[in-house]
Amino acid sequence: MIFSHWLATLLGGSLAIHGALGAITLNVDDENSLKTAAKTVASDMIDFYNARDSKDIPGKFDGTWWEGGSMFMVLIQYWWLTGDSQFNDAIQEGMYWQKGDDDFFPSNYSQYLGNDDQVFWGLAAITAAELNFPEQSGQPSWVSLAQGVFNTQVPRWDTSSCHGGMRWQIWPYQSGYTTKNAISNGGLFQLAARLALYTKNTTYAEWAERIWDWSATTPLLKQKNWNIADSTTCDTQCTDHGDWQWTYNYGTYISGAGYMYNYTNGTASKWKAGIDGLIGTSSQFYPTQGYNGAAGNVLVEITCESVEKCDRNQITFKAYFSSWLAFLTTIVPGSSDSIMPKLKTSAQAAIKTCTAGSDGTLCGIKWYNQAADGTNGLEQQMAVLGVLNANLIPFKGGAPLTAETGGTSKSNPSAGTNSSNQAVPTLNNITTGDRAGAGILTVIFVTGWAVAVTWMIRGG
Ligand SMILES: *[C@@H]1O[C@H](CO)[C@@H](O)[C@H](O)[C@H]1NC(C)=O
Ligand SMILES: *[C@@H]1O[C@H](CO)[C@@H](O)[C@H](O)[C@H]1NC(C)=O
Ligand SMILES: *[C@@H]1O[C@H](CO)[C@@H](O)[C@H](O)[C@H]1NC(C)=O
Ligand SMILES: *[C@@H]1O[C@H](CO)[C@@H](O)[C@H](O)[C@H]1NC(C)=O
Ligand SMILES: *[C@@H]1O[C@H](CO)[C@@H](O)[C@H](O)[C@H]1NC(C)=O
Predict the structure, then answer these.
(1) Coil, strand, or helix at residue 207?
(2) Helix (H, G, I), strand (E, B) or coil at 377
C-alpha cells in the first residue's frame, strides 16, 4: 500500500450532521447491544462498498486493492461473532474473484502491488479457515489460499541486503522496492504463524521464527526496548529507521507471537516475552495526556489523528490492532487483563463518533473526541467494526480452529506454486491505464520519501 499522508486530504469530507437522528446506543457489557451496534456499523460499511465506481469488479475498491482483503477479514470476524450471514455472499464473491492463481496476486493489479497488500488477503483467508467460514465447492479452500500467499511470498525473501527480509514493494521498478518495512515482514510472520498452528506443518513455524529473528536484527523489531520502526532501507543494510509509530505494525507482530506461543505449547519463552514487551510499548497508542482527556483509555492512531493527516489506509489500522489483540486473548491464557479493558473503553468512545450522515450513524476517525469529526467513509466504519468485533470475542467464547480442533478447510501445501506471476512483468505489456496508475503512485511515493528521509534525519 502506498502511504501518502504527507499529501493527505481527508477523505470522505462530506459534512457530518452533528447529532442527527440516530446515534447508536451501546452497552459494551451487553452482547446483544454490541451485536446491534456492529450490525449498523457493518451495514453502513457495505453501503459504501456497494456505492463504489468499480462495483462491477467484486472485491475491488476504487483506488485501492488491499482494503478489499482487510474489509473481508473484518466481515468474516463479524459473521462468526454475530451469526449475521447477510454479507457472506459478498465476502465469498469478492474473495474468490480476487484469488488470482490461488495466491491473491491477480494479474490486473500484480504489477504494482506491495507484499503488504497481498498478505492482507492471505490474512483474510486464514481467518476464514480458522472460523470455518463457508466454502463453495469447486473453489480452493480458504487455508489453501492462505498457503498460496505464503508460497508466493517466501521466494521473495531477499538476502541481497540486510541478510534477509521482505522488501516492501515487489518489483524493481517500484519506488519502495529498496525499503523493508514492518507490515510486510510482520504480515508474513503472522500468516506463517497462523498456518503453523492450523496445519501443524513445521515449515511454517520455521519461517515465522526466521522472520521474527531477522526483524530483531533490524530497527523493525527492537527487542531492547520493544520498539517497532515502520521501515528501513536496503542501502543502509537496514540500519536506518523510519520511526512513525502505527498500531497495525505492533498488532501484527503481537498477534503472530501469540500464535507461535500457542503453537509451541507455551514452552518457548521468546514468544511470551515478545507479547508482553510489545503490549507494553503499545500503551503509547493509549495516550494519557491531551487527546481530549481520553486518559489512557482510548485507542489513538497517534502519528496522524491529532494532526488530521490520516490517509485512508491509516484510518483502518485500529480495526486490525483491536481484533488481532482480542483474538490473542483466546490462545494466550492470562493476556486478557492487559488487552480487553482498554478495548472496551475504546469501543464506547468509538461509537460516539457515529452520528453523521442522513441516518445519524456514520462514524468518524478520532474516537478520543467521542463526537463526530466531520469525516466519514468506509474506512471509518471498518475501524469501528474492528473494535466492536474485539469486544464480542469474550462473549462468543472459543478460539481460532485448527485442523485438529474442528477446522474443516483443507490444506494444500503446494497452492499458488503454479502461478504465472512469479517473473518480473514486462512493462510493455501493462496497459496505458495501469501504467498511468503506477506512475502516479510512484510520484506520490517519491515525493513522500523526500519528506520521510528529511524526517528521519531530523528524528535521528
Ligand atoms: C480485471 O479487469 C477486467 C477488466 O476491467 C475485469 O473485468 C475483471 O473483473 C478484473 N479482474 C479482477 C480480478 O479484478
Ligand atoms: C505441543 O503439544 C502437543 C501435544 O502434547 C504435541 O503433539 C506437539 O508436538 C507440541 N508442539 C510443539 C511445537 O512442541
Ligand atoms: C492454545 O489455545 C487453546 C485454544 O484456546 C487453549 O485451549 C490452549 O490452552 C492454548 N495453549 C497454551 C499453551 O496456552
Ligand atoms: C509442509 O509445507 C511444506 C512447504 O509448503 C511442504 O513442502 C510440505 O509438503 C508440507 N508437509 C506436509 C506434511 O504437508
Ligand atoms: C499449471 O498451470 C498450467 C497452465 O494454466 C496447467 O496447464 C497445469 O495443469 C497446471 N498444473 C498444475 C499442477 O496445477
Answers:
(1) helix
(2) coil
**pLDDT at 168 (0 to 100):** 97
Q: Which domains, ranges and CATH numbers included, belong to the chain?
A: 7-459 (1.50.10.20)
Q: How far is the CA of 420 from the centre of ligand 5 (A)?
A: 10
Pocket lining: 201 vs ligand 4, CB cutoff 6 Å: yes
Using a 6 Å cutoff on CB, does residue 402 contact ligand 3?
no
Ligand 2 mean position, distance from CA 149 (Å): 26
State mean pLDDT over 341-365.
97
Contacts of 44 (CB under 8 A, 6+ apart): 357, 359, 361, 362, 363, 381
pTM: 0.90
Nearest CA to ligand 1 atom 7: 57
Residue 418 binned pLDDT confidence (cut-offs 50, 70, 90): confident
Query: Residue 162's closest CA among 231, 237, 214?
Result: 237
| CA 331 to ligand 3: nearest atom | 2
Q: Is the per-residue pLDDT at 255 higher than 90? A: yes
Going from the C-alpha of 401 to that of each of 16, 260, 329, 331, 406, the distances in angstroms are 41, 14, 14, 10, 6
- Residue 374 host element (H or E): none
**Angle between helix 312-328 and helix 340-351 axes, rounded to 10 deg:** 140
Consecutive H or E run containing 232: strand 231-233
Interatomic CA distance for residues 68 and 91, integer angstroms: 9
pLDDT at 6 over 50: no
- pLDDT, tens digit (0-9, with 9 covering 90-100), for 31-68: 999 999 999 999 999 999 999 999 999 999 999 999 99
Cα–Cα nearest to 211, from 239, 181, 236: 181
